[in-house]
Amino acid sequence: MTVLLIRNVRPLGGAAVDVLVAQGRIAALGPDLATPADALQEDGGGALLLPGLIEGHAHLDKTTWGGPWYRNAVGPTRMHRIDNERAWRSATGHDAAARSLALARAYLANGTTRMRSHADIDPDIGLAHLRATLRTAALLAPHLEIQVVAFPQSGVVRCPGVAELMDVALAEGAHVVGGIDPCQIDRDPVAQLDALFGLVEKHGKPLDIHLHEPGEMGAFSLDLILERTEALDLRGQVTISHGFCLGMIGATERDALLARMARMDVRIATTAPAASAVPPLAICHAAGVTVYGGNDGIRDSWTPYARPDMLDRAMHIGLRNALRRDDELDVALDCVTVSAAHGCGFADYGLVVGARADLVLVDAETTGQAIVATPVRRLVVAGGEIVARDGALLD
Amino acid sequence: MTVLLIRNVRPLGGAAVDVLVAQGRIAALGPDLATPADALQEDGGGALLLPGLIEGHAHLDKTTWGGPWYRNAVGPTRMHRIDNERAWRSATGHDAAARSLALARAYLANGTTRMRSHADIDPDIGLAHLRATLRTAALLAPHLEIQVVAFPQSGVVRCPGVAELMDVALAEGAHVVGGIDPCQIDRDPVAQLDALFGLVEKHGKPLDIHLHEPGEMGAFSLDLILERTEALDLRGQVTISHGFCLGMIGATERDALLARMARMDVRIATTAPAASAVPPLAICHAAGVTVYGGNDGIRDSWTPYARPDMLDRAMHIGLRNALRRDDELDVALDCVTVSAAHGCGFADYGLVVGARADLVLVDAETTGQAIVATPVRRLVVAGGEIVARDGALLD
Asked: How many CB atoms lie within 10 A of CB A313?
C-alpha cells in the first residue's frame, strides 16, 4: 500500500504541517517530517486540510444523477411523492445500481469518504434497491465507506411483507434499520415501532427513523421512540432523521424531549431545509444532543435540488441556522465531519495519528471560506490513497 | 457596433433558434436566420438561452470580494452589525470603489446585466460609498446597468445630516431613495417616512425601503408606507425590500396589506433567507404583487454567504418557497428576470425583438436545471457585445 507524504497543508486553517500516510492511516502529522525512502511526495501548496467529509443522510438509490433531467410535476403531499416515485420507477425502469454508483462517485470526488444511505424497500421493488446500494457500497468500499439503511419508504404496517423484507435485508448486510413517520404514513405508530425495534433487537443493528411529522404529532411519535430506546437501553443506537417537530413545539416540551435524547445519546440527522421548521442547532447542542448533516435526496423524483458535496450541505446548515461568525461556521463544518462520524458510528475518524487517512485539500484561507465558497477539491485521499484531483476522480 | 448572429440556442429550453443582434438590440429571433454580410457568427451548440439576469437588491459598496477573508466575530443584533461595519470600515480603510467594481464584474461574468445596489450614506463616510458605486456604474455602463440607491444604513432621524446628504446624492445621480426600518432603527417612523417621501417628491425618484421589522411592528411601518404611497399616488414607485413581517402576521391582516400593495403596484424584493420569515411567494403572486430577487450583501462584515450569481439566488428562492416542480422553478427564474425588470423599472427587457441584447447561454436541458445546477455561463452578451466566455470576462 502507498506511503504518501503530503507537504505544506494547514489542518482546519491552522499552521502548516506535513502529513504522512501509511497502511491507509495517518502515520504522522507535524512540521518538517522526514521523508521515508519509499514515499510518494505531494506538494500541498499551503492548502486548507479537512478530514474526509461525511454524508449522514442520503438516498443514493433514488437519484437520476448522470441521467436526463427529471421533469417534476408531482402533487403537493409526501404521499403524492411516494406514490409518484413508485409509478415513475416502474414506468422508466430506473437503474438504481448505475445511478447510485454515479452519485456515490460524485460524492467521493468532492471528498466524501463515509456515508449513510437509505435504500427503499417496498412491495413493488422488494430488495432490488437495497441490493443495488449494497453493490455500490462494495464497489467503492476501499475508499468510500457506505452504511446502507433498510428503509421502508412506503410504510411498514400499511405494506404487508415489508417487515419481512427488512429482516432479510438486515441478514444480507444492511447496516441500519430504517423507519418513517409512524403516525402519518403508517397510521399505527405502536405497530410500526414495535416491528422496527423488534428488528433492532433481533439483528443488533442501530435504528435511523425519518420523522417528518409536524408539531405535536411528531412529538408524540418521538416520545414513543424514546420510550422504547430507554426500555431497551439502546444508548447511542438511534438517530432521528429530520425531526421537524423539534422546531415547532413549545420550548418546555422540546427541552424535555432533548434532555431524554441527550441521556440516551439519540442523534439528529438534519438536512436543514429552508422551507421547513428544523431542530434548532444551538439549542440541541446546549442540550447535549449530537446533530449531523445530510443532503437527503439529490435530483430525484422528490426534489430537483442538492449536490453531492458536504461543504455545500454545511453551507445550507449555516444558512438555515443563521450562522454568520467564523466560530459558528465551524459548528456547521462539525455537522459534516466530527459529529457525523459520532452520529453514524464511523470509527478512526479525524485529523489525528492512527485515524483512517481520509484527507481533503481545498484552496481556502479558513474553514468558513471552504464552506461558503465550496471550492473545487484540489486533492482527495481516501483510505490512504489519492482518489481525486481538482474535482475529478482519477480512475 | 457589432452585428452578431448566434446560431442554435434554445430560448428558455424551447425549440432551437438563431438570434441576430445589431445596434445593441435583438434584431431577429427565429429558426435559420439569414447571415448578414458583416455578422460575427457564434455557434450556440444547442445551449439554453436565458435573458440577461437581474440583481434586485445588492450592496456592492460593502463587499470584501477579491480581498482577504473577513473574520466575523460580530454581535447578534442588526445594530451590532451596523456599528461594527462603521468601525471596521474606518479601521481598515475599506476601498468601496475597488471592491464594488470587483464584485460587479463577477456579477457580469455570471450573466447579470442589470442591477440595483444600495450604497451606504451615514455621517462617517458621507457620500464616499455612493460616489464609489456611481463610479463603478459608470465604468460598467455599456454592459452592466446599475441603479444606485441612496441608502441611510444607520438611520435618518437618528443621524443628523443624513437626509441632507441623501438630497445631494439624488441630485448627483443616485437613482433611488433608500430607507430602513422606520420604527426599529430610527425609532420615529413618521419623521423618517416624511423625510424619505419628501425626497421622493422633490426628486421624482422611486423609493426602495429595507423593512426587516418583524410581525406587527413591520406591518405598522408597512401601513404607514402604503398610506403615503396612496396619498401621493406613487403607483409603481415603491419597493419593500425583505418585508419579513408579511411572513409573520395573520392571514387576514397580511392579505389586506397585499391587496393595497397590488393596487399601488408596490413591489417586494426578497433574498429568501433560510433563517427568517419571508413574504410567501405564491400568496403574493395570487394577490397580484410583484416579487423579485436579490442577494443582499455578499462576503461583507454582515454575512459570509452569497454569490454574485442570480441563478444561485433563484435556487435559494426556490428552496425557501419549497418550489420543486418544473413549473414552480420557472417562478423562481422569473424573480431574477422578468419580475426583477418590472420591479426595478428596467425597460426593453427580455428575449424579444427590440429588447436590449442581454443574453446568457448555459449548458442545461431545462430552465429548472439551470437554476439548481448553476452551470458556468458559456457565453454572456451584454448590450449587444460578447463580454464573457466560460465564466470569465473577456477584458
From this structure: 30
Structural Rg of chain A based on CA atoms: 21
CB contact under 8 A, B72 and A325: yes
Instruction: Count A/B contacts: CB-CB distance under 8 Å.
Output: 83
Closest Cα partner for B232 from B256, B207, B267, B258? B207
DSSP class of residue A61? G
Record: contact A369-B69, CB cut-off 8 A = yes
Instruction: Per residue of chain A (395 residues), give pLDDT as tens.
Output: 689 999 999 999 999 999 999 999 999 999 999 999 999 999 999 999 999 999 999 999 999 999 999 999 999 898 999 999 999 999 999 999 999 999 999 999 999 999 999 999 999 999 999 999 999 999 999 999 999 999 999 999 999 999 999 999 999 999 999 999 999 999 999 999 999 999 999 999 999 999 999 999 999 999 999 999 999 999 999 999 999 999 999 999 999 999 999 999 999 999 999 999 999 999 999 999 999 999 999 999 999 999 999 999 999 999 999 999 999 999 999 999 999 999 999 999 999 999 999 999 999 999 999 999 999 999 999 999 999 999 999 98
Give me the residues of A, 241-270, that contact B with CB < 8 A.
Answer: none
- Distance (Å, rounded) from C-alpha B23 to C-alpha B353? 12
Give the whole-angstrom CA distance, residue B282 versus residue B304.
29
Q: Report the greatest alpha carbon distance in chain A.
A: 65
Torsion of CA A230, A231, A235, A241, to 10 degrees: -60
Q: With contact defined as beta carbons under 8 Å apart, do A306 and A295 qualify?
A: yes
Contact (CB<8Å) A305/B320: no
Considering only CB atoms, A68 lies closest to which of B73, B273, B365, namely B365
Buried-exposed string A361-375: b where 16+ CB fall within 10 A, e elsewhere: bbebebbbbbbbbbb
Residues in CB range of A100: below 8 A, 6 or more apart: A60, A61, A63, A117, A132, A133, A136
Of A302, A220, A306, nearest to A257 (Cα)? A220
Give the phi and the psi of residue B228 in degrees, each rounded to 5: -75, -35
The total number of residues written for chain A in this structure: 395
Q: Give CA B71 to chain center in angstroms.
A: 26
- Grid cell at residue B88: 471596521
Helices A326-335 & A310-320, crossing angle to 10 degrees? 130
Contacts of B369 in chain A (CB under 8 A): 69, 304
DSSP string, B139-207: HHTTT-EEEEEEE-TT-STTSTTHHHHHHHHHHHT--EEEEE-TTTTTS-HHHHHHHHHHHHHHHT--E
Q: Are B145 and B114 in contact (CB under 8 A)?
A: yes
Cα angle vertex B47, ends B45, B52, to 5°?
130
d(CA A238, CA A225): 9
For chain B, say whether A324 makes contact (Cβ under 8 Å): yes
Give residue B289's Cα distance to chain centre: 17
**Domain annotation for chain A: domains and CATH numbers:** 4-51+350-390 (2.30.40.10), 53-344 (3.20.20.140)
Q: How far is Cα B93 from Cα B73, in angstroms, rounded to an integer?
A: 19
Euclidean distance between CA atoms B60 and B83, whole angstroms: 18
- Residue A361 gets the label, from left (phi > 0), alpha (psi -120 to 50) or beta, of beta
Grid cell at residue A381: 485521499
Distance, CA of B304 to CA of A318 (rounded, Å) = 10
